[in-house]
Amino acid sequence: MDRPQDVYAVIGGSGLIGRQIVDKLKARGDTVFVLDVTQRHDDVPFHHVDVTNKDGLRDTLKRCGATCVFHLASPHAGTARAEVFWKVNVEGTKNVIAASVEAGVRKLIYTSSSGVVFNGKPLNGVDETYPFPAKHMDVYMETKAKAEELVLAANGKDGLLTVAIRPCGVFGPGDRQLMQGLATAFDRGQTGTQIGDNTNLVDWTYVTNVAQGEILAADKVDLPVTDLSMAVAGEVFFITNDEPWRFWDFTHKIWDKLYELYPGHQARPEPRVIPAGLGMVFAACSEFIAWLLKKPPIFTRFNVIFMSTPRLYNVSKAKRVLGYKPEVSVDEGIMLVLNWWKSEYPDKPSDVVKA
Fold it and tell me: What is the pTM of this model?
């Protein structure tokens, strides 16, 4: 069966995942537009659009003739005030839904997060039936969960079909969050400290694998099904590389490569392991001092939990229903992102000022 020709609008198409979706759509000859507040590329039509402006978003979608929207616009976790997360992730998503309906869009693929089900306790292979926690770990996860609920509730209404994708631990070329953090730690000689015993397995996802999952969902969301277990519309899917790594094995793999890429830049510190319980004490003290100084804390209890808790997600639904299969392994992905990082920073590993 021939795939129906859609016109794609990628909201947040200048970002890490959005850019890879754009590249994949371009590669197969699709018509694609980028809608974002920042333009980083000029190889596809770009429209400066803010999701907090519903009318502007609707008018742009109409001008593009969009039939399928990928919605990825969101501040990065830990980078904005609470009210900004609510304004962009929740109110902005309401606007995306309304604008899509008014513009005649048929498909809406929303990028959620695996973190919407994380409550600080071990997750050992949970699937999409696992419930949201009574209290989310932070406002980013809370607002992403709320936005996901809005998107799924809109499915089947006013001619709109919706899907939510939950990636975990996304990394790849163009990443300036995870890689910047690891490169900064390397630059400051902070690679020797380990929080926890490194027995916690964690899922990671190379960015093109996420893009693949998103496009598969878009292609299949409007296909008729006789078996409801194969439905895509109104569903949520975890997307990972399906090859868990111990948390510190992943970070040390990157740091080891940075020592190779920047020889002589930094002496390798002596390793030291801090038990997770003691790390929580240090983090609580850091948070208290930051509160006294009215500054953001450098080290938090959430950091300790993130570094020492298993977070594994079952992707069998995505494999069975979407036909998802990771294209790039974690090992391959690490090499690709580090080669890109070296091309961005040929002489030094980051632009940070050493502590």
Answer: 0.94
